Task: structure prediction
Amino acid sequence: MKYNKLYYLLVFLSIILVTASCVEEADLIQVDPNVNTEGSFWKTDEDALKGVNAAYGSLLTDGTYMRSTPLLLDLKGDDTRSQSPWGAMFNVGRFNSSVSDAAIYGWAFETYYQGIYRANQVLENVPEIEMDQALKDRIIGQAHFMRGLFFMHAVKLFKSVPLPTDNSEIYSAQKSNEEGWAQIISDFQIASEMLPTSYTSVSGLDAGQVGRATKGAALAYLAKAYLFTQDFPNARDNFKKVIDLNVYSLVADYRDNFTDANENNSESVFEVQFSRDAGGVDLGWGGAPASGWGKTSARAITYGPRGFGWTDVQPTQSLFNDFHIEKTVNDEVDPRLDATMFYNKPGGMMLYGQDFATFYGGNQQDLNDLFCRKYQNSDGGQPDEFDWRSGINERIMRYADVLLMYAESLNETGATGNAYQYIQMVRDRVNLPDLETTKPGMTQQEMRDQIAHERLLEFALEGHRFDDIRRWGWLQNSSKVDWLKSRDYEYDTYKAGREYFPIPQLEMDNNPGTIQNEGY
Result:
């Protein structure tokens, strides 16, 4: 009996020893079934949709369209100026952002890569999910669109940046500006082939949803990328594809593009969705989303007129003057002026339920000043912007932009005469005279100058002007730089290379081999 007990004990111990020797360290790591991780999350079509929604979410925080990105896009143009007491903002338009202070531009850089990371998660995981193929294609197409959009912002603002197309590496090598545009074009090309014209005719979890990227949006941004790289034939052909979709048209009232009254309208090719009625009441300053975050924007308070917002951004006097160069067919001032800025208008102008001349009458400086009107909740529904919670969607690609960029690509490919009709479509909305009558037979250079003027007035304070100045090569033309200085004193401190922002120091420190942009 004693022998049998000893025998069984040895056998038992041997089994334990053998079993223990087969256990790997990874086998001891248990995933909490009550907590979602990247490894446990991607299971269903609902997970796939939530994943791509997270990429859209990166458009709503402080680094992107809640506040920082409009500032970075607007303030270097000759249509804006800043007297902000905050140095990081004040210096953007003076081409003097500091490497030692990454406020605003560093937040944008970080958030673009957050959006890229989220898009990459979708592209890596959704193909493996068993789900409806059409829905899967739309989600993957949106991920390519969002990644292309974030890459485009990073490349436009920072020139040479990392281009991670998967999340397998902690750090990704810095690439050239040319490589950046090639990746942007690739993403938008794929997106244009996978996305629907609209979501009204699809079935599935995303059926009927407004605000998602469409084929038209992908084609428009693809064409814009070609335009920025001076591939004018491809730009022309893809803008024409957008037009030929026959789903976009200009809204009758120009101001409808900048209020919450007519959002996602027929002119909207792509817009960032904000709402006072969604989520909590806290602003999304950045980082991991919190339960109290809302879906509102701080643009309105940042750009708001004095007494109604912080007045960190204001129109230039030269922009005001440009609206008076040409009268309408009824001998009136271009109506886009009143939709763009507040000023002491003869006959009166209302803002936030107040008469401009009366409200500012006690201060001659303010009475004679200019303030932003686009994207302001100023039609009387709110007394001011000091709750920081604007629900106005940011229209970042309008059909008017497609028409004028198409006209530009026609002109650059030698079809100057054909450009007139697409410019006139934009002019007709605001009742300006027929350009073929007032300026017939323009040369290619004359048409370039005319398109520059048309774009300035149509898109003032919308983040396009400095993009245009840079891509047209004006900063390498001393006479153009002198002209810009005459229009906007902030150009007095422009230095070569400062058309781009510095690579944030944190990126320089953490990503070996990163080279700082010229001029910093």
